[in-house]
Design brief:
rod-shaped, two-stranded antiparallel sheet, 3 domains, 10-stranded antiparallel beta sheet, single chain, Glucose Permease (Domain IIA)
């Protein structure tokens, strides 16, 4: 039985000779099958590439949207932090007024004569007022004005450490751990570990222990008039809560406690609970210079 085949005739353009090529049907069908398979493979590759390009485009769009949302979240977080600081300041002033004028929120007497009832503080309020007056030292008995509030030594007017190199300034910065934007509430002053930290103004120590929030060992001094100074990341604390300190007194030592990358002093100034730029005070301040009579305090 003869095999079926196709005849391909080739003609030479110069010699005019004809040449016949016999191509079996199976070979033609195989070539067509391979061509069809190649077309399917090509279209599949194109479709897969298009799908991958679409996914990459969507991923990039989502990434940009996430970055935008992260930026907006950080902005809102900073705004909330500022509002919280303002709220804390208002609460502090409200507390001062409440204690100064005896205004209380609890009324003793029937509800129908509440307007005529006598304002009497509760026991919890009395304890709270006592702690407030002892720690803040904002008010004096019998309406006497405090000399401390009127003294210039109650305003921060001294560099807390012997050095003037600021590693990180007040305001917006990049967080050294997360790399994201963050609001820095104070300044970081470069100083070796163990360097003496001194009170920048007269005041009363209201905090002298480990604190959360990355501060590590923290000292907070209240200078009256709503002014407070913070000394963080200390290696040692030389004062206790309630202690009266004077401008230039050694209160601690520089360290690297808390959330830090290297030894330094984190210094804050707050007015009414809201942080302000400490450089306003540091720009006009000097380093500590002991008096000749107090030779025991030379360093």
């Amino acid at each position: 039985m003869k095999q079926e085949y196709f005849v391909v005739v080739l003609a030479h353009s110069l010699r005019g000779r004809l040449r016949r090529i016999h191509v079996p049907h199976q070979a033609v069908y195989a070539i067509l099958a391979f061509a069809l398979l190649g077309c399917f493979s090509f279209f599949g590759f194109v479709a897969s590439y298009a799908r991958m390009a679409w996914k990459v485009a969507n991923y990039n769009a989502l990434k940009r949207e996430a970055e935008s949302l992260r930026t907006r979240y950080q902005s809102l977080e900073n705004l909330v932090s500022q509002k919280n600081d303002q709220l804390a300041s208002l609460q502090l002033y409200a507390k001062e007024i409440s204690v100064a004028y005896g205004i209380k929120q609890k009324l003793e007497g029937p509800a129908d004569i509440a307007a005529e009832g006598k304002l009497v503080p509760s026991f919890a309020e009395s304890v709270q007022d006592y702690d407030f007056l002892r720690n803040a030292n904002l008010l004096q008995l019998a309406g006497k004005s405090s000399r401390r509030l009127q003294s210039l030594s109650d305003r921060p007017s001294l560099w807390p450490v012997d050095g003037r190199l600021i590693m990180s300034s007040y305001g917006q910065r990049s967080d050294p751990f997360s790399g994201e934007g963050a609001f820095h509430k104070g300044v970081d002053i470069s100083a070796p570990s163990g360097e003496s930290v001194r009170a920048t103004a007269d005041g009363i120590v209201i905090h002298a222990e480990w604190a959360n929030g990355g501060y590590g060992r923290l000292i907070v001094i209240d200078h009256g008039g709503g002014i407070q100074t913070y000394y963080a990341h200390l290696s040692k604390i030389y004062v206790r809560t309630g202690q009266d300190v004077r401008r230039g007194d050694m209160v601690g030592a520089v360290g690297s406690s808390g959330r830090v990358t290297a030894p330094h002093l984190h210094y804050e100034v707050r007015i009414g609970g809201a942080p302000v730029n400490p450089y306003i005070y540091l720009a006009k301040a000097g380093n500590f210079r002991p008096t000749p009579e107090k030779k025991d305090f030379l360093f």
